[in-house]
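Bug: token stream looks shifted between consecutive jobs. Job 1:
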Amino acid sequence: MKKATVFGAGSFGTAIASVLTANFDEVVLWGRDAATVAAITERHENPGYLPGLSLPMRLVGDTDLERASAGTELVVVATPSQATRGLMAQVARVVPAHVPVVSVAKGIENDTLLTMTEVLEQCLPESYHPSIAVLSGPSFAKEMVLGMPTVVTIASRWEKTAQKAQAMFSSERFRAYTSTDVVGVQVGGSLKNVIAIAAGMADGLGLGHNTRAAIITRGLAEISRIAMRMGANPLTLSGLAGMGDLVLTCTGELSRNRKVGIELGKGRPLDDILAEMKQVAEGVKTAKSAKDLAARRSCELPICEQVYQIAYERKSPRAAVLDLMGRTPKSELT
């Protein structure tokens, strides 16, 4: 294949672009920052997001939306979830028709409570909707660039689109499965970031492995509960975009959301933590979406609720632990 285009030159956009060079003659990584784009093209490095890692020669940067999109056979949208709508308002006029448009952002839009594929459907003409897909699963950017084996799920309401994208992404070091459950894949990929903040807080408080395991397990129950209310297949949440990504993000040293939680558990203010981070921790804003989704769907998400209160209402992490442990006793499966 000749050309693929990735919008968003952060760590994950860069990693996805790197993966795609296995199957495309040219991969264009669009970004707003001219210095970053120049470094990608000239030095084959993204110094701001993935310093010290060499990028493939086939990967080039560009700041021009139209030039980056011209003649492309695949579009990947890799901007943070809350910035996706703003980007797509510009991209909609330059995206070629009938090429897969794959979102890799893991978040739910605040206020509208739409998933990223729903945002893409609002921004693109109806004729483009059968080409929309989402990629999710346990995938740290640094390990992808280093060529470590990574396995993900690509979901689309149109199975042929998922299969077409699958062929474009898959290589000897990157394996993609397909799904038609766009809701389950996106809810799993989004809410796991909120649960990862909780798991990080437990680590920051020094609460041990028992607590972390409980958060992961009960967190998966919350994710499954709300996803099923939204029409997801429960089996999706036991797969790569559910349990797989949840375990990685709650335990991995490269997890940004877990890092935020660790610092919160140590008593640091959220604003100070975020001010030190160049990359976006999606779970912070998704905590608000999770709280609002729970209210809209009349669904209990107690861990997500506590993360929201800590992040937005300055609740003490220790008080949140006491509230979770003191909830009314109930059956595990209700």
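Job 2, same session, no restart:
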Amino acid sequence: MKIYSVYDKEFRAYGAVREGDFSGLLRVLAKTECPEEGTVYVASYAPLEADPATREIERELYGGMPIQIGYCNGHNVRLDCLEFHKSSEIDMMESDTVLFFGLESEIRDGKYDTSLVRAFLVPAGCAVELYATTLHYAPCRVDGGFRMVVILPRGTNLPRPASARDPMLFGCNKWLLAHPDAPEIRMGAYNGLTGENLVLT
């Protein structure tokens, strides 16, 4: 599998690299738990949200919309799922990390072919904005485990509205397509990925 860089032109369809002083957020991230197996996701983490960079991100990158700052840490090498939001997501990496991306516009009849997925290296310390149309999910390790800051509009990933009819809607502002082999299928996720369940080797 070819791995691009987020500094390559191929990334422009999926997002953009964002500059700023995120050193405080990354110092807090370095102290968060990183499980030896699997991943942990915390949507809103008070020590991260207390960092001075939070207000600037809220003002400059989200136009004043309330945000939540959490983290996704752990060990992973598989695609398993792809999700999208009706908003941008900003991710920051503690170490070199690979993310799989697709495009919402490539979904056909409720299915997404994993042969369309592209892999991108996000270097340590880099912050990337993933556009609302970008399919993505948990990072993959490059060397050992990973830690990633995750910034989204406040309320994202809370339980889905009980009356929602869209089978892809897995949580608040979270549309999820799972591969038949993914553990999320047993949690009620929509079976929406066809083709190979990609593995980073």
